[in-house]
Structures
1.
Amino acid sequence: MKEQIAHLISIQNDYIVKQSDDELLLIKLKNNVADFNQYLVLNEVGAFIWLRLSPTDDLKSICEKTSREFECTPNEIEGEVAEFLKKLHQFTIN
């Protein structure tokens, strides 16, 4: 999981980020041009996680930050956060 998180942090500048209400649109850049064939819409929780990823993060710290924001416990959301990060990683490597 640590490698997946590190990868996500390393590629953040490869995406244009557009906020729309509680959603976040991630648009892949190819040769400094937006590729509208490869984009992803994140809900409020996914947007929160993407915008707050930092080089010191691991699954535990991401769950702690997210749980404080959305009033739940880190244990309650750990599985969902891990699954989200795996799917986001898969999206970014394709």
2.
Amino acid sequence: MDTIAERLKHIRKEYLLNQKQFAEKIGVTNAHISRMEKGITVPSEALTKLICKEFDINTEWLKSGKGPIFESDFNVDEKMEKSISTFNKLLRSDNSMIKNQASELNLLFTQITNVESFNDNMKILYLNNIINLFSIVNKYNSLIKDGIGTGQLALKDIHDQTFTMYKNDLLNYVDEFQRLSFLCQ
């Protein structure tokens, strides 16, 4: 990908978006996206920063094609070390119930992320959807952990308030997943 136009189109396709959807995410018209992808115009510095922030893109890669595409590629090893360390602490617990639950969670995670039979495009789509789903779970689990940890929420409060919002976000996720699935057919 020699030009910024090609790199922009690559980003859009990587996220399985048409020009209109891509434009909506960054607040421009789809005609503007079309002109940029054809190389007629170049995104402004502000728009470049917005695209990079919205899609986790390395600014240097978008501008010049150099370096990793995704900003998150810079700290993959750090993320891996942190997640493995956290999980290993649970697996080494003196409490056998904690150890058992951690190993069960590890097994579930392994089954969920086993995508060996998928081609690379389907792996990306599937794993991206799992990340989105886990992000929703993490958002609400953080609220629950904080509420219980500080004693500010009773289980009844969590059920009444948090799970209603949780359910709505999951339903929105399902709608988005169905939309993406339709695009891949």
